[in-house]
């Protein structure tokens, strides 16, 4: 008789929806109260197992605080995950904040190998990896799950973008589920100044994304011109209140990828997409532009412009006017579009301005110096060029705030002059008021800065960048919940992660006493941009008081690799993110990780 115990056990492959869940900070909870944590885990498991059964699922495995389950459909898995989080939220309300069991959930639809009820394979691995990216109490989905929800569920999600995860060769596109129940806000902070309110704006029903125009020019150095015109079209459309415009950084993430229009619309929440191409040769320019409807992928409008480069501004006005007219936006004779176009009177000045904007997209002292030189040349040719003054003021303030200038006081003086000139030439410029707010923020005139940003928001209610600047003002006056709201509103306007906004959201959460949530967010950001100094500094400020030694050592190593002459006190006091007392405490936390 053969020994059955040594015989191989056959398995099978199948496509299934996999749910992975674990408790955020479980080791910390066990170290604080082993018996109490275990009892709470048992209760949470009973809740989770019940919900899984009710949604036609099966528990495949458990290990420690982790749960692995499979469902018949992706919709069942998502509905079950949302019910799990709502039920656990109710249970956690009975516990003290230090003892709450905040589960993170990741869901993937993929091919798995099943053997004796256990599940293996990349389908499981992907679910586990995206689960580790989720916020406490949150749910993340892979693209394969999201695609199955179309027209089958009213679940609201937001795109987090392509994420590089451990041991998976290709980046995984991840979506976050928006659930009604959220975590408690944490302790409040009283401040001497009134908390600013974010102006309420009725969301537009038409959302437009402008894809980066394809550069068909023979000269590869003309790419800046193509990107610049795309950005100007985006800015012009954003000034029309009847439209919601997908942020530039989100759309440029699809540059050169030729995405499927219907899928792109679903990913970024756009009803319409504008795409086109530019061919610039000598003194002539040819622009092809078309407006597409994302629901069907069909063309609504298309046109080709073939003119002398001197007619560039007329071409831009014509494009904006035609697009908004086709979408039935109330626009009379194109006057509103003309009022929002780039303000140059000289084509060569405009060319220099777009070169400067392209150069300054890289954050460094060298690129900023080059961009400023180009802008000064543009202003020599056109002393009334509002856009060039605006860009110059922004670069000067960034230099002064981030220790990149030999004479920050002179930079601020020049920025103030530029901003005064902008407002003189174009008082209704939203970005001029945002720049003015940044200057006032640098000068610690916070109430005035707040008013300038609110005015800027009222003029451009769909600008993620303006909300970010506003959030940093809120942060410094101690209105941490308002800062968090501004960061998340900016994230709604710009689904693709923006590093400076990730930092704002994480700092706001940390100062609200929600450090573990902040750590999840900042880890996600540093994985996306491993050379971003500000994210690693925020990471250091989080892990130091938590006593995470390995993370502290990693933070110190990364920061000094990026900036060898880093100074904790200088950083904390010069960035304009904290009041004096908070800046002092933050510098002390940075010293705790061994930073000078």
Question: What keywords describe this structure?
Answer:
single chain, 596 residues, alpha/beta, Alpha-Beta Plaits, Rossmann fold, Serine Threonine Protein Phosphatase 5, Tetratricopeptide repeat, 6-stranded mixed sheet, 24 helices
Describe this structure as you would to a colleague.
Among the domains are: 11-178, Nucleotide cyclase, GGDEF domain (Alpha-Beta Plaits), CATH 3.30.70.1230; 206-330, Rossmann fold, CATH 3.40.50; 497-596, Alpha Horseshoe (Serine Threonine Protein Phosphatase 5, Tetratricopeptide repeat), CATH 1.25.40. A hairpin with a 5-residue loop joins strand 13 (284-293) and strand 14 (299-308). Helix 15 (430-442) runs antiparallel to helix 16 (446-459) and helix 17 (464-476) runs parallel beside helix 19 (499-511). With 596 residues, the protein is of the alpha/beta class. It contains 24 helices and 14 strands. Strands 1, 2, 3, 4, 5, 6, 7 and 8 form an eight-stranded mixed sheet that branches. Strands 9, 10, 11, 12, 13 and 14 form a six-stranded mixed sheet that branches.
CATH topology-level fold name of the domain at 11-178: Alpha-Beta Plaits
Strand content: 15-25%
> Helix proportion of residues, in percent?
40-55%
Largest beta sheet, briefly?
A: 8 strands, mixed
Q: What's the CATH superfamily of the domain at 11-178, by name?
A: Nucleotide cyclase, GGDEF domain
Count of alpha and pi helical runs: 24
What is the CATH class name of the domain at 11-178?
Alpha Beta
Q: Report the count of strand segments.
A: 14
**C-alpha end-to-end distance:** 73 Å
Radius of gyration: 26 Å
* Unreliably modeled segments: 1-9, 181-203, 328-342
Shape: globular
- CATH architectural category of the domain at 11-178: 2-Layer Sandwich
Q: Structural class of the secondary structure composition?
A: alpha/beta
């Amino acid at each position: 008789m053969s020994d059955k115990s040594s015989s191989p056990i056959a398995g099978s492959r199948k496509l299934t929806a996999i749910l992975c869940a674990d408790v955020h900070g479980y080791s910390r909870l066990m170290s604080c109260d082993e018996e109490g944590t275990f009892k709470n885990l048992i209760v949470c498991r009973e809740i989770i197992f019940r919900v899984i059964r009710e949604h036609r699922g099966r528990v495949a495995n458990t290990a420690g605080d982790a749960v692995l389950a499979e469902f018949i459909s992706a919709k069942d898995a998502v509905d079950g995950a949302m019910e799990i989080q709502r039920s656990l939220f109710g249970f956690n309300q009975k516990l003290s904040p230090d003892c709450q069991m905040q589960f993170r959930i990741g869901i993937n639809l993929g091919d798995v190998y099943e053997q004796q009820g256990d599940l293996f394979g990349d389908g499981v691995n992907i679910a586990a990896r995206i689960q580790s990216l989720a916020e406490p109490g949150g749910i993340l989905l892979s693209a394969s799950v999201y695609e199955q929800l179309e027209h089958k569920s009213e679940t609201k999600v937001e795109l987090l973008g392509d994420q590089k995860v451990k041991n998976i060769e290709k980046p995984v596109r991840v979506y976050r589920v928006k659930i009604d129940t959220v975590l408690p806000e944490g302790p409040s902070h009283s401040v001497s100044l009134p908390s600013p309110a974010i102006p309420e704006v009725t969301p537009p029903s038409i959302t437009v994304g402008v894809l980066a125009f394809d550069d068909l020019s023979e000269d590869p150095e003309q790419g800046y011109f193509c990107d610049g015109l795309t950005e100007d079209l985006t800015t012009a459309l954003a000034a029309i209140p009847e439209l919601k415009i997908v942020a530039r950084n989100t759309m440029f993430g699809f540059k050169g990828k030729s995405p499927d229009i219907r899928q792109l619309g679903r990913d970024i929440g756009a009803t319409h997409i504008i795409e086109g191409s530019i061919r610039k040769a000598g003194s002539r320019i040819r622009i092809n532009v078309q407006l597409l409807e994302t629901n069907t992928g069909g063309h609504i409008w298309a046109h080709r412009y073939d003119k002398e480069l001197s007619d560039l501004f007329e071409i831009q006005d014509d494009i904006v006017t035609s697009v908004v007219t086709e979408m039935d936006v109330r626009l009379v004779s194109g006057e509103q579009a003309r009022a929002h176009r780039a303000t140059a009177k000289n084509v060569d000045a405009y060319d220099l301005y777009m070169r400067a904007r392209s150069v300054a997209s890289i954050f460094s002292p060298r690129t900023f110096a080059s961009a400023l030189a180009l802008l000064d040349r543009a202003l020599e040719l056109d002393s009334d060029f509002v856009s060039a003054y605006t860009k110059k003021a922004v670069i000067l303030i960034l230099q002064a705030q981030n220790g990149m200038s030999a004479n920050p006081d002179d930079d601020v003086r020049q920025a103030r002059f530029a901003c005064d000139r902008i407002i003189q030439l174009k008082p209704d410029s939203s970005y001029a008021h945002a720049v003015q707010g940044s200057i006032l923020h640098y000068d610690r005139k916070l109430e005035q800065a707040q008013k300038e940003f609110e005015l800027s928001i009222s003029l451009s209610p769909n600008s993620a960048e303006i909300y970010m600047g506003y959030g940093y003002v809120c942060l410094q006056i101690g209105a941490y919940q308002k800062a968090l709201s501004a960061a998340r509103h900016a994230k709604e306007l710009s689904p693709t992660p923006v590093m400076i906004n990730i930092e704002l959201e994480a700092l706001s959460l940390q100062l609200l006493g929600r450090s573990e949530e902040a750590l999840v967010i900042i880890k996600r950001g540093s994985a996306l941009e491993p050379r971003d100094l500000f994210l690693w500094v925020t990471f250091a400020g989080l892990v130091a008081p938590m006593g995470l030694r390995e993370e502290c050592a990693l933070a110190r190593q990364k920061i000094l690799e990026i900036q060898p002459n880093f100074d904790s006190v200088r950083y904390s006091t010069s960035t304009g993110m904290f009041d004096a007392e908070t800046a002092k405490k933050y510098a002390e936390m940075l010293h705790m990780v061994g930073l000078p």
